[in-house]
Design a protein that fits this description.
By secondary structure, this protein is α+β, with helices and mostly antiparallel strands. The chain contains five helices and 19 strands. The longest helix has 23 residues.
Length: 312
C-alpha cells in the first residue's frame, strides 16, 4: 500500500500534468463572473436577478466580481418552437481551483459569467476528482426570453406595469397560515410549511369587456387554481380552507369561488428514507375581474421594488 507521502506526491504530479495541459488549451484564459442579487416582486412572485453593484445591500464578504482561471467548452444547438427560434448554449467550465463563492453563497446570490458575449451560470458541478484537483461546472447560457429578468441597469426594469394577468396576486396575499409562492418559483431548499399556487385555464365569463368613463377595461374571467400545501396536517389545512372561504365572502374580496374545493393527499416520496412528505392539494375554480387585479398589483409592486443606484 502506498504511503501518505507517496499519495501526496502522486496527487501533486497528476495535478501538475493536467493543469499544464489545461493552460495550453486555454492559453491561460481567465473568465470573469459578476455577482447578482435575487429580488422578488412580492405580489406576483416574479424573480429578477439584479446586478449587485446597483444595490445598497450593506457590507458583504462576497466580491462583486471574481476572475477564475480555467477552460470553457461551449456547445450550441438551435431550438425552434411555436414561440421562438433561439440558440441553446451549454457551457462546461474546467477550473483549476474550487470556486468557493459557488459553494458558500445562498439562494439569493448568483454569479453570472460572460464568454464571447454570452452570459451563463452553473446549475451543477460534476466529475470531481480530488487527486486531479480540477473542477468541472456545467450550466446553460441565459436564454433570450429570460434576459428581461437579468437587470444590469436601472433602465432595464419597468416600474409602471405588473407582470402577471391572473389571480396570483390575491393568493400570495392570503398568507396567514404559511408563506405562499408561485408554482415553480418557491425559494430554493425551502423548509415546510409553505404553499405554491398554480393558475391555469383563464377563460372569459362575460361576452365582452366593460369600459368605464375613464376607458378602464374590466373583463370578468374564470380560472382554475391549484394550491399545493406542504408541511401542514389535516386540521390546519381545513382551517386554511375555511380562511380562504371566509375571505371570498367578505365585502373586500377580489375573487369568488365557483366550486366546492376539498383537500386531497398527495404521495411525494424519497427512496432513501422510504417516507412520504406532508403534501396536500386543493383545487379552486374562481372568478375575478382582470383589470382590477392589474390595478391592485401595480400599486403595491411599485412600492416594493428595490432602489437601484448607478454602479459603484
Amino acid at each position: 500500500m502506498p504511503s501518505l507521502s507517496e499519495f501526496s506526491t502522486a496527487k501533486t504530479e497528476l495535478n501538475a500534468i493536467l493543469t499544464t495541459g489545461l493552460d495550453d488549451l486555454s492559453q491561460f484564459q481567465n473568465v470573469t463572473f459578476t455577482k447578482y442579487i435575487r429580488k422578488v416582486l412580492p405580489l406576483d412572485g416574479f424573480v429578477f436577478w439584479i446586478k449587485a453593484s446597483l444595490l445598497d445591500e450593506g457590507e458583504s464578504s462576497d466580491p462583486d466580481t471574481i476572475s477564475v482561471k480555467g477552460y470553457l467548452h461551449l456547445t450550441t444547438e438551435s431550438i425552434q418552437n411555436d414561440e421562438q427560434l433561439y440558440d441553446r448554449n451549454v457551457v462546461t467550465f474546467t477550473a483549476q481551483a474550487d470556486i468557493d463563492p459557488f459553494n458558500d453563497i445562498g439562494s439569493d446570490v448568483l454569479y453570472i459569467g460572460e464568454f464571447f458575449g454570452i452570459q451563463f451560470s452553473f446549475s451543477r458541478r460534476t466529475g470531481l476528482n480530488e487527486p486531479a484537483n480540477l473542477y468541472h461546472y456545467t450550466g446553460e447560457a441565459i436564454y433570450p426570453h429570460m434576459r428581461s429578468q437579468i437587470i444590469n441597469s436601472a433602465a432595464d426594469i419597468d416600474l409602471n406595469d405588473v407582470v402577471v394577468s391572473n389571480s396570483l396576486p390575491i393568493w400570495l396575499a392570503l398568507n396567514k397560515f404559511m408563506p405562499m409562492y408561485p408554482a415553480m418559483l418557491a425559494l430554493q431548499n425551502l423548509s415546510p410549511p409553505y404553499a405554491t399556487v398554480k393558475c391555469s385555464n383563464t377563460a372569459p365569463i362575460a361576452g365582452a369587456f366593460f369600459l368605464d368613463e375613464n376607458q378602464n377595461q374590466y373583463q370578468l374571467v374564470s380560472e382554475d387554481v391549484t394550491l399545493a400545501v406542504t408541511g401542514l396536517r389535516n386540521a390546519l389545512v381545513q382551517d386554511f380552507l375555511s380562511y380562504i372561504q371566509d375571505y371570498t365572502l367578505s365585502d373586500t374580496a377580489e375573487m369568488g369561488v365557483m366550486n366546492t374545493p376539498v383537500v386531497q393527499d398527495e404521495r411525494v416520496t424519497q427512496n432513501e428514507l422510504n417516507i412520504l412528505a406532508q403534501r396536500k392539494t386543493v383545487k379552486f375554480r374562481i372568478n375575478y375581474y382582470q383589470q382590477r387585479m392589474r390595478n391592485l398589483s401595480r400599486g403595491l409592486i411599485i412600492s416594493a421594488i428595490p432602489s437601484l443606484f448607478p454602479e459603484k
